[in-house]
Specification:
With 264 residues, the chain is α/β, with parallel strands linked by helices. It is 35% helix and 18% strand. The structure holds adenosine-5'-diphosphate.
Length: 264
């Protein structure tokens, strides 16, 4: 009788140079995950933490734009990569290594190899936390992080509409199955404050909070649709960095404080 081979044992390698590795993920694209990741990173910085930002979306890197980074990372030995520092944050993105216009037509193994390079060959130095902006979904990148990288916590960003929430449930189950600690869920584009002072729940109400409850996860907070969040991202200077006292930056700070508590 043929015997099943034993399941492959993965060794989880830590990202060197940081005390904490935090994944920011979303099950669906376009829910504002990259915007939240970068603003959250600077909200953590405003709490006195030394930050790094790793853009793990090899197909659609957005960090160079969100932070207006034009510099290429350097290497002294042709192997290890020195991250680019901007606004006191150490940054790394596939978008810094390839031309902006170059489409990334990669197969799974190439993606896995790129993720391994960005987690093992980048000389992160003296960081309290590296915020990893994950690609949307539950594909090769997520699996590589879940199985082969020592991750300390993950947060899931979603908008509150049913369509996005369905995918969130899949995302929660993936992290639960692979043993990644979910620190909580964030509801982005939760409401829009009109000139009349009223809040308009464009994508529905409290869906993310309910999903968090359903799966026994922490709910970290609501973030509104705000033009300043979009325009600061377009200018390449995230709102929580350019205007830390903005009402939306303070909401990010509140979420950052909750996340910081889980670092101990
Ligand atoms: P994702 O990473 O999920 O694909 P992005 O962070 O790229 O999403 O956001 C998509 C678009 O929505 C961007 O133009 C971004 O500036 C904008 N955006 C994201 N969150 C907000 C928000 N809370 N308020 C206003 N605009 C937002």
């Amino acid at each position: 009788m043929s015997q099943k081979p034993p399941p492959k044992q993965f060794v989880k390698m830590p990202i060197n140079g940081t005390k904490f590795t935090l994944l920011v993920s979303s099950a669906k694209g376009g829910v504002g995950k990259s915007t939240v990741a970068v603003n959250l990173a600077f909200a953590l910085q405003s709490l006195g933490l030394k930050i790094g930002i790793l853009d793990a979306d090899v197909y659609g890197p957005s960090l160079p734009k969100l932070m207006k980074i034009n510099e290429k990372p350097k290497s002294e030995d042709g192997k290890a990569i020195i991250p680019v520092t901007k606004y006191d944050a150490q940054c790394m993105s596939m978008g810094l290594l390839v031309d902006e216009q170059t489409p990334m037509i990669w197969r799974g193994p190439m993606v896995i190899s790129a993720i391994k390079t960005m987690t093992q060959k980048v000389l992160w130095k003296d960081r309290d936390v590296i915020v990893v902006d994950m690609p949307p979904g539950t594909g090769d990148t997520q699996l590589t992080f879940a199985q082969e990288v020592k991750v300390d916590g993950a947060i899931i960003v979603s908008t509150p509409q049913d369509l996005a929430l369905l995918d969130v449930k899949r995302g929660i189950q993936m992290f639960d199955k692979t043993g990644v600690n979910i620190l909580g869920l964030i509801d982005n584009m939760s409401y829009f404050k009109g000139d009349d002072g009223k809040d308009y729940q464009i994508f529905g109400e409290s869906g993310v909070e309910k999903t968090a409850k359903e799966f026994n996860k922490k709910f970290l907070g609501h973030l509104p649709i705000h033009q300043d969040l979009r325009s600061s991202a377009d200018k390449g200077d995230p709102l929580t960095h350019s205007n830390p006292n903005h009402e939306v930056s303070l909401l990010f700070k509140n979420i950052a404080e909750k996340i910081k508590q889980s670092f101990q």
